Every structure is written in structure tokens, then in C-alpha cells.
Amino acid sequence: MRRLRVKLKGAVQGVGFRPFVYRLAKSLGLKGYVINDSKGVEIEIEGEEEGLAKFLLKLSKEKPPLARIYSQEILYLEPIGYSDFEIRKSNEEGEKEVLILPDIATCEDCLKELFDPSDRRCLYPFINCTNCGPRFTIIEKLPYDRKNTTMKIFKMCSDCEKEYKNPLDRRFHAQPNACPKCGPWVSLYDTQGNLVAEKEEALSMLIEEIKKGKIVAVKGIGGFHLVCDATNEETVRLLRERKRRQEKPFAVMFRDLKQVEEYANPSELEKALLLSPERPIVLIEKKKELAPSVSPGLKRVGAFLPYSPIHHIILRGLDFPVVATSGNLSDEPIVKDNQEALEKLVNFADFILIHNRDIKRRCDDSVMKVIGGVPTPIRRSRGYSPLPIELPFSLPRKVLAVGGMLKNTFAIGFGNKVFLSQHIGDVENLTTLKVFEENIYDFMKLYEFKPEVIVCDKHPRYETTRWAKWFSEKEGIPLIEIQHHYAHILSCMAENGVKDKVLGIAWDGTGYGDDGTLWGGEFLIADYRNYERVFNFKPFKLIGGEKAVKEPKRVALSILFEIFGKEATDLEIPTLRAFEKNEVEVLYKAWEKGINSPLSSSVGRLFDAVASILGIRQTLSYEGQGAMMIEDLYDYTEKDHYGFTIRGNQIDWREIFYEILKEKDKGKAVSKFINTLANICLEIAKDVGIQRICLSGGVMQNNPLVSRIKELLEKKGFKVYTHQKVPPNDGGIALGQAVYSVDAEK
Asked: What is the CATH number of domain 224-347?
């Protein structure tokens, strides 16, 4: 039994939404209530997980014709024992909120018109209404009027103006309202910068080129996608070569849910996510293979559905799904401007489809994954940003939190809200640093915000930390540095509304520790004021420093040296076979003397070591690759685990790896390793004795691990909190930074 709180914003009042929810809940045997409040509609339902998943799916698919959901906030809670389902009297208290809405997927009404030959907007790629279309990516400043958007250069024709001024029309005050007569249009260019075609002809030609196996760049809502036939191996391989992206999986856009189900096995909850108004990429299990190079070596595919009219038109014209990946060189920001596209994307695409409605701010696609039975953001961006995270307390000062260096998002916080930016990316080069800075200034201007304090990570070499120090000195604003894993735990506490002290389990690849070593396997007792590091994994040496992060074989070698000393060089296992004999000798000396071999307690690196020892992966072409491949091998029926030892406040992993080396079956080794980690969490939770447990960090994107931890701890009466609103990875730490030092008791 679970309880689910669903908060909906959008056109959800006065459209028969509450009676619809009442009938739906009753038909599924669910208990609880539905109520209108000052922000939209709030629903609380209790029942079995399967019934709740069906409720969410039907909420998206069967809502009243006039109802439009702009945002959907879902929170899984402990059941409290409702006796029936009821429609409660509306609550009119509270401030009426006007928020900048995210970009909203094309609604059903607009879709009908888009493909209706008798409609004046038939096949018009910028069709929208009050209930759908771009918002965040076209707003230049508030209030949200047409003159303050990138649509200001297009004067509405008399027909559009009539709709815009008619209170009974669904385009009443739809700021991006337009039609083929008065609105933006598309143009197709070749790689020499020559105009090939415009408007409908441009789209028809583009579709034919995709059918021929060409790679095209398409300007969408928040930037350009690189698009090609996802079933054509030769084309997908060529895209990898051009984009310099070796193996990192590509997202695939499917025409509709039926086509998704041809290639994959989405659960009811995953279907609900695919069809939600945010239209994120959802990581789901494959059924049959697309082109092998789409997501090599993985059992999952990142699937999403069309969310803009341009996408719908293209996918309707094809009988296969397409790769739709960010239009950029790997590790650079997504391209958003026409001139930038004609200069940069000619290296990747055979044709470029642009349009003349400017994109004010870049906004990548969001990525979701069901982890431990809960929808969890892996990347929070289009469709979700810039909706705020509401806090159960007020912030004492206006705060700018700059986030981490990888998967960066920053945040501004004031009152009881934290506004997280869209996904910026890895701030490791000058181009991304510039975009990071541009977006911070953009947010401050948009919200008329001046920070009273800045919070950053403690890592002295993070570009975001360096920028925060520079900005703090320039503006004369106090700067606070916060430990990386503590910020992870605070983000989990804040989004779940936890005010009490927790045991935080923060596991990831790397984070700068208070002792100058690299942390990543941490157990922290934490509240919003302070934390104590109570347990951690026994530190090991990363031979070659940064190199070890990309080469699991180096981590495994260090683990083996720790267990067997120099005798490890004689082992007949995949790790040793991945090196030349003389190379191992040199690395042993480096390990022995600690030359360029910093200490790390990272569980993420332990996953890498397992991947190497079992011959799953020796080098990585993208972050988390080894861990993702390990996750695919997990057997949910395996309940056994390895032995482990906790000495003082350190978890000794040597016994675990000694047992892994003896295991003949790869799947069994992986499953028992993950089960062991979950059992370690249980032992420490029992030892610490705090009932509330928060899980955070990139390693907590592993579904079997989180599921097993929750299963073991909840059976013993612990309350386990995971991420549902911000990513468990570094994309969520800006929230934790923003709430640091608040007095949650007030």
C-alpha cells in the first residue's frame, strides 16, 4: 500500500476535473481526496502500487477534453488510512501564483488541427494555444506578454487577433499565437549555407532526406536536435563519428506510444511519464534492437515522444523512430541560434532546418528513470525548469547556489522556493562556463533577483567554485563553501520536506572531502546546519588520478594490490589481461609509493573495479558506463550477499572483492555485490539508530541497488527518502547548497 500526492497546475479548474478524478479513483478502488487550491488541483490517493500506476496513466490519457496539465508534481508517501474517496471543498487561501511555466508539449486539440486538411493551421509547425507551446524558452522578461517574448516581431493577422481577444477561444491570450499567414516559418539549408526550401516544402524535403539515410539538424523548442533513422546502423555510426561520441547512448524519438511498444517494454508508470505534459526522455527496457549503435551494450533505451509541432510533422512522415540527440559537439552546450547552427552543425548534418522564432535560452531534453518504484529525474530541464521546488520552511536570505561542475544546474532561492536552472552540462571548458555565467545573469534579470549570499562546492578546482569566488569578490557578497556529499543529502531532505536529523547515504564517483581526499562512499548524520561523517568505505588509491576515473582497470588493479600486494600481478583475470606486463610493474611502483595516486572512498569507483574484474568493461567512453552495464546484469531473484567487515568507522571492501574473484557466474557476482552494499546500509542504519534515511549521489541512480536498500530498511521500520524532483546526481546539488544553514524548526 502506498499514498500518492499529485499536484497539478494548468487548466484544471472549471473543466470538470474533480468529478473526473473522483470517478477514476472510485473505478480503481483508491481512497483519498481531490481539492482545488490557489495553485491548481491537489489529489491524494491511497492503494496498491499497480492501481496508483494505472491512475497516473489514465490521468494523462483520459482527462477531460478541456483540461490541460502544465505541470505534474508526484510524491510517494506513507499511507495514512483514508476510508473513502471524496471531493473536498475548494481551498481559496494562499497567494495566487504566477510562475514562468516550462515549455509545454503540443496539446491534443492543436494536434487535431495540425493534421486536419480543412484547418487553416494544417501542417503549420508553430501551432499552439493557451494550453501548450513554448514558454520558458521564448520569454525575455516578465510580465508574460507577447511584447516581452521572442514572438514580438510577428504581428498577428486579423484571424489570430480575433482568437487572442476572445475569452471563449482556447487561444485567448496565448502569447505565441500565430498562423502560416502571420507567424514564423521554417527554412532548409544545405552544408554550404544555401537556402534549399522554405515552409511546407522544406519539411517535405527534410523527411525525404531522413528516409534516404541522411543526418539532419532540426531547430526545436530549446535548441537543435541532430536527427536520423534510428534503425539504420550505417547512419547512426556516421553520426557517432561526426559528433565524436563513441558509445554514450542516443535518445530515440518515437511517433507514438504504439511505436514505443514495438521496440520496448515500458511499465505502466513509464508510459505515464512518456505521455506526461513534460514529455521527458524515459529510460525503458528494450524489446527489440534498433540500430546496434543507438545504445551499445545496454538493455535500456532513452525513449521519448514528439513534443513540438515540428517533431509531430516529421515523425508522422516516417514509418520508423529517429535518433534525436542534442545538436552539439560532445561536452559543449546545445546549439540554439540560426547563425551558430549554420557555422557549427554543418560538421554533423547533411541539411539544417532552421526557423525565424528566436530561442531566448537553451533548454535540453529532460531524462527520467523509474528507480525504486519512483519516477526520478536523471536530468531536469525542458518541461520541468524553471518551476520551483517548494520548501517546508523559508530561506533566511536570497541565495545563489552555483551547483557542481558536472551535470551542472545552478539555483536561486528566496522565500520558500528554490528555482533550479535548466541543465547546463559539464562546466569543463570555456564555452560551457560562458553559458553557465550567461544563464545566471539571465535568471537574476528574469526574477529581478540580487543574491545576499552565494554558496558553492568546496572543491578548489571546480570552475563553478572559481566563478563563485570571483563573483563574490566583485559584488561584495558573502561566499559559503559546502562539502559535496553533504549538499547531496540536503537536496534529498529539502525536496522531501524532511526537517529532522537524518542518516544520509551519499555515494557517487568523486567529491572533494574535508580531509583533502576524494570522498564518494559516505554515511553522514545531517541536518540543515551541520553534519558528521560517521562511516565511510576504506579509502583506496586511484592510480594515475584522473586517468583512473576513465579506466576501471586501474581502480581494479589498486584494489588487487591492496588485497594481494605484488602477487596480484600473477592473477589470471580480465583486469590483468587488459595491461601489458611491464605496465603493471610500473603501476605497482606508482601505487606503492603513492605517486599520482590520490585516496578515494568512492562507491562509484568500486562499481568500476567490479566491471573490470568481471571483464565487463576496462575503459569508459562516458561517465557511469560500467555501472550501467553492471545494473543490466542484476538478477532480482538473487537474495544472497557477500560477507563484509566494518572496522571502526570504515567499511572494508577486501572481503567482498576476494569473494567476487572466486565467483564463476558474472550475473551472480554482480547481484551479490549490489545486495552486499544494501546489507551494509542496513547494518549501519541499525548501528546509527536514526529512523529517517536519505539516499543521494550518482550511484543512487542504480535501480536494483536503491530497490534493495529500500526493501531491507523499510522491512526494519526505517523511512527511506529518495529523489523525485531533482536528480540524485550532481544535477541536484544546487538545491542542497541553497538550503544550507536554514533553521528548519522555524
From this structure: 3.90.870.10
What are 349-365's pLDDT values in tens digits? Answer: 999 999 999 999 999 99
Take residue 646 and report the three cell numbers written for it.
Answer: 566494518
Q: Summarize pLDDT for 201-233 with one digit per residue, the tens.
A: 999 999 999 999 999 999 999 999 999 999 999
What is the residue-averaged pLDDT of the chain?
A: 94
Cis status, amide bond into 386, omega within 30 of 0: yes
DSSP sequence for 191-220: TTS-EEEEHHHHHHHHHHHHHTT--EEEE-
Number of H helices, E strands in the chain: 23, 31
Residue 655 has a CB neighbour count (10 Å cut-off) of 14
Instruction: State mean pLDDT over 185-213.
Output: 97
**What does residue 600 show for φ and ψ, rounded to 5 degrees?**
-140, 145
Q: Span 700-723, mean pLDDT?
A: 98
How many C-beta atoms lie closer than 10 Å to residue 509's C-beta? 23
Could you tell me whether strands 367-371 and 374-379 are parallel, antiparallel, or unpaired per DSSP bridges? antiparallel
Query: What are the residues facing 457 on neighbouring strands?
Result: 482
Q: What is the pLDDT of residue 154?
A: 98
**369-495+729-739 shares the fold of 2-87:** no
Helix (H, G, I), strand (E, B) or coil at 492: helix
HSE-up of residue 728 (Cα within 13 Å, Cβ side)? 29
Q: Report domain 369-495+729-739's class.
A: alpha beta
Look up cell 484544471; give the residue: 12
Q: How many Å is the Cα radius of gyration of the chain?
A: 26
Helix H or strand E segment including 535:
strand 531-537
What are the E-state strand segments in 233-385? 251-253, 281-285, 300-304, 322-326, 351-355, 367-371, 374-379
CA 320/CA 291 separation, integer angstroms: 11
CA–CA dist 621, 604 (Å, integer):
15
Task: Decide: residue 583, CB within 10 A, 0-12 exposed, 13-18 middle, 19+ buried.
Answer: exposed
What pLDDT score does 130 carry? 78
Q: Which CATH architecture fits 2-87?
A: 2-Layer Sandwich (3.30)
Distance CA 617, CA 594 (A): 25
CA dihedral 432, 436, 437, 441 (to 10 degrees): 150
**pLDDT tens per residue across span 276-315:** 989 999 999 999 999 999 999 999 999 999 999 999 999 9
* Domain boundaries along the sequence of the chain: 2-87, 224-347, 369-495+729-739, 519-524+536-721
Instruction: Give the separation between CA 33 and CA 90, rounded to whole angstroms.
Output: 11
Total residue length of the chain: 746
Terminal-to-terminal C-alpha distance of the chain: 32
